[in-house]
Amino acid sequence: MTIFSEIFTKSAAFRPFSISSPPCQTMLTAIYSAVLEYGSLECTFDPLMTPLDMEPLLSLACNSPDPITVQSCSSCIGVMLNRMDEGSHLEELKSKVFAELDSCTLANNKAWLCTRMCQALVYRWDERSAERAVKKFVECLTDKHTHSDTAHLTRNVLYPIHQGNRMVLYKQRFLLTLIPLIQPFISNPSLLSEEVSTSLVGGVGTILQTLPQSLISSHGATLYPVILNNLQPGTADSASIHLIQYLIANIPGVVVMELDSLVARLCELCTARAVSVKCRVEAVRALQHCATQLHYTHTHLQREVVVKKLRKVLGDRKRVVREVAAETLQSWLMLAVNR
Helix 259-271 and helix 277-293: axis angle, to 10°? Predict the structure, then answer.
């Protein structure tokens, strides 16, 4: 789908860029529709465009109070960063985007532009620019002003632009770049306020749910604290609990190091009324994984607590939860027999 060629050949007609001008509104509507339907990097553009053509959009992305305008302009810039041929124009555009990010003061605007830039540069993988983009992304995720907006957009960073081997490689590169940057905050949570730390854990947890599980298991010791902290009634979903089940089966040595905390969080999810039925079922199944796949020497200390909680879950209002709880309770009761 080509939406930029026709628009930008007429760009001189509406410079200086006015948000209220009909051509501008038409362009933003077209970009936003394309983003919603095809994803931000599935559009094509006029290869003759230069960074000068993008300056109005960049200005709007950083300064506009309108959310749709910010999303559209940021997505358009992401397209340019991803699709533009290597050369002086690309380097100039990168420099302009990084400079605007440094000076941007609006939290939502900065979060959108940073996320789209990170998505584009990591995907095309110019090592220096990609690492700088991921660093900017982590800065936004740990900044007291932008952490909340950035955390809500983390899933966009790993938007599945293409499937297959290239997409897996893209995710692997991103993860390997991300881990050293978040390691200090995982090792020493006191570096961040509780609110910012929650955004970091939630944002990184969202990213981990989109990664191949084999990638996560190879970095399990580093990432497990983030995954574990994401298991809370307000943030956990079935994908994060599936991830825990996978880690229990594949890297039990890491899981047992924090088994007390894991069991406590899973028990809380099982009995919390605010948690969805699907999450309650998966949390109970994760407890069953603990009983059947971890060694008795690690689980017997948790047996009394888990059995008490599961007997409470047997009174859940949903039959599917009660059925899984009965199976899991049987597994925990049989621990002493099967050791």
Answer: 150
